């Protein structure tokens, strides 16, 4: 442990942090302005009258009216301040708070890259990325430093490694390997200019399936190894540009390209982007300007944070059921682009006292994106049932019972109810983990793992 702490606290060139501060701030400016210009903020925050918060955090609500538009424009401005290093610590903390607020106030549009940006923005608050080439240094020259502790760079590297690796782990499943979801996506993109006719070919589909597995598993380790680093970077560059062109995932591909540069040595980054020559041996002898207790606390945080990031995405392995169907453990686990769901749901509200029954259609209450996501997520189906319970109580119904009638197709397979239509969701408390009112993924003919499970069971029987 002592040797590990020495390595984590070893001084290295600060230019990687400066480089990433500038690129991160620029990308967050583009993210904030772009989300407003394409009406993304308006569609997800302004138009809905009901919002789906994360269970336990429902008290976090979006600002009314056009408030969230102003929040995103403010985040864009803060991104510029981060880029130039103006009051960096305060500004980066405000950006982290605002982005976290927007993230947790509406989960309908959960995206892994928003989760990653939230995490990274929080990490930026802790790092001395303002101690070189910043307005803070112009105002207070005593802040300037040529070095930073080594853990600050490895914090980003470790986070990226886990994102890539767990994306690869998630792809080792029958549906992905059978190209179920990929085939659906590509068939919907044949209209794309120039590349469209080539996207839905068998060769391209297999390239995406197997290339995605190999890329996610190996790219992080290839970026770590100096002999393969340059080739790996350009492979990752092409991979992310392809994702940007085909899947339109905002600034995420460019964020990852910018972050991948951090796998190069601090000396290379200083030379390429700042035209500065640095000697790692001399830098290692320079003192770090932070107090010793802060440095040690930062190194301890590094260990705890990456340990949590290593373990938390594995939780779905300990929850019964297929995560692609039940969604238990899907969020915050780097499970990216693994399933395509199409479904529908409506509700029956019964008055327990009179026996009267009403049919409720969610489109009377929800916005377009919410209607699309509601049938896919059992927790959202439950949350809307709780809303209906309170809504009908306000209308005078004493004991409303709420039943969800759902049908869902996962990756093109036949539709099946995702929640038990005979369960009164109004009376069911929400519990973490497997839920009795969520149906298991059906094992009808055609499901890839039915044959695999039967084979496995046969082998077990023969071994007894």
TrEMBL record:
<keyword id="KW-0456">Lyase</keyword>
<keyword id="KW-0812">Transmembrane</keyword>
<feature type="transmembrane region" description="Helical">
    <location>
        <begin position="69"/>
        <end position="99"/>
    </location>
</feature>
<feature type="transmembrane region" description="Helical">
    <location>
        <begin position="111"/>
        <end position="131"/>
    </location>
</feature>
<dbReference type="GO" id="GO:0012505">
    <property type="term" value="C:endomembrane system"/>
</dbReference>
<feature type="domain" description="HTTM-like">
    <location>
        <begin position="9"/>
        <end position="268"/>
    </location>
</feature>
<dbReference type="GO" id="GO:0008488">
    <property type="term" value="F:gamma-glutamyl carboxylase activity"/>
</dbReference>
<dbReference type="Pfam" id="PF22777">
    <property type="entry name" value="VKGC_lumenal_dom"/>
</dbReference>
<dbReference type="Pfam" id="PF05090">
    <property type="entry name" value="HTTM"/>
</dbReference>
<protein>
    <submittedName>
        <fullName>Vitamin K-dependent gamma-carboxylase-like protein</fullName>
    </submittedName>
</protein>
<feature type="transmembrane region" description="Helical">
    <location>
        <begin position="12"/>
        <end position="38"/>
    </location>
</feature>
<dbReference type="InterPro" id="IPR007782">
    <property type="entry name" value="VKG_COase"/>
</dbReference>
<keyword id="KW-0472">Membrane</keyword>
<dbReference type="GO" id="GO:0019842">
    <property type="term" value="F:vitamin binding"/>
</dbReference>
<feature type="transmembrane region" description="Helical">
    <location>
        <begin position="231"/>
        <end position="249"/>
    </location>
</feature>
<feature type="transmembrane region" description="Helical">
    <location>
        <begin position="151"/>
        <end position="170"/>
    </location>
</feature>
<keyword id="KW-1133">Transmembrane helix</keyword>
<dbReference type="InterPro" id="IPR053934">
    <property type="entry name" value="HTTM_dom"/>
</dbReference>
<feature type="transmembrane region" description="Helical">
    <location>
        <begin position="205"/>
        <end position="224"/>
    </location>
</feature>
<dbReference type="InterPro" id="IPR011020">
    <property type="entry name" value="HTTM-like"/>
</dbReference>
<keyword id="KW-1015">Disulfide bond</keyword>
<dbReference type="InterPro" id="IPR053935">
    <property type="entry name" value="VKGC_lumenal_dom"/>
</dbReference>
């Amino acid at each position: 442990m002592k040797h590990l702490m020495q390595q984590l606290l070893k001084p290295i060139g600060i230019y990687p942090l400066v480089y990433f501060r500038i690129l991160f701030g620029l990308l967050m400016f583009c993210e904030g302005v772009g989300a407003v210009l394409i009406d993304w903020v308006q569609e997800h925050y302004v138009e809905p009258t009901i919002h789906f918060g994360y269970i336990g955090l429902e008290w976090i609500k979006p600002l009314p009216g056009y408030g969230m538009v102003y929040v995103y424009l403010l985040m864009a401005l803060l991104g510029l301040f981060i880029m130039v290093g103006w009051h960096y610590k305060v500004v980066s903390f405000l950006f982290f708070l605002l982005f976290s607020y927007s993230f947790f106030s509406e989960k309908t549009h959960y995206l892994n890259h928003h989760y990653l940006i939230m995490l990274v923005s929080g990490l930026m608050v802790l790092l001395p990325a303002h101690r070189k080439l910043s307005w803070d240094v112009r105002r207070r020259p005593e802040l300037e430093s040529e070095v930073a502790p080594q853990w600050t760079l490895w914090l980003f590297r470790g986070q990226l490694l886990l994102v890539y690796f767990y994306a690869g782990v998630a792809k080792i499943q029958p549906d992905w390997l059978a190209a179920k979801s990929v085939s659906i996506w590509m068939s919907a993109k044949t209209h794309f200019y120039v590349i469209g006719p080539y996207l839905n070919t068998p060769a391209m589909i297999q390239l995406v399936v197997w290339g995605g597995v190999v890329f996610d598993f190996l790219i992080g380790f290839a970026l770590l190894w100096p002999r393969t680093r340059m080739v790996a970077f350009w492979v990752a560059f092409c991979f992310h540009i392809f994702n940007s062109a085909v899947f339109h995932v905002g600034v995420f591909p460019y964020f990852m390209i910018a972050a991948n540069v951090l796998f190069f040595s601090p000396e290379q980054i200083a030379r390429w982007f700042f035209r500065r020559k640095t000697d790692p041996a001399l830098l290692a002898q320079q003192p770090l300007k932070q107090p010793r207790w802060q440095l040690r606390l930062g190194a301890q945080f590094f260990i705890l944070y990456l340990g949590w990031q290593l373990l938390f995405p594995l939780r779905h392995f300990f929850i019964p059921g297929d995560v692609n169907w039940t969604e238990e453990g899907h969020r915050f686990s780097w499970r990216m682009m693994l399933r395509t769901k199409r479904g529908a749901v409506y509700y029956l509200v019964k008055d327990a006292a009179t026996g009267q029954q009403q049919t409720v259609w969610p489109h009377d209450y929800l916005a377009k994106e919410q209607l699309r996501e509601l049938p896919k997520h059992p927790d959202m189906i439950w949350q809307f049932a709780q809303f209906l319970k309170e809504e009908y109580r306000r209308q005078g119904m004493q004991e409303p019972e709420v039943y969800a009638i759902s049908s869902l197709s996962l990756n093109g397979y036949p539709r099946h109810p995702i929640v038990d239509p005979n369960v009164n969701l109004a009376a069911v408390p929400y519990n973490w983990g497997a839920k009795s009112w969520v149906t298991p993924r059906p094992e009808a003919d055609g499901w890839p793992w039915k044959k695999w499970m039967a084979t496995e069971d046969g082998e077990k029987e023969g071994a007894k």
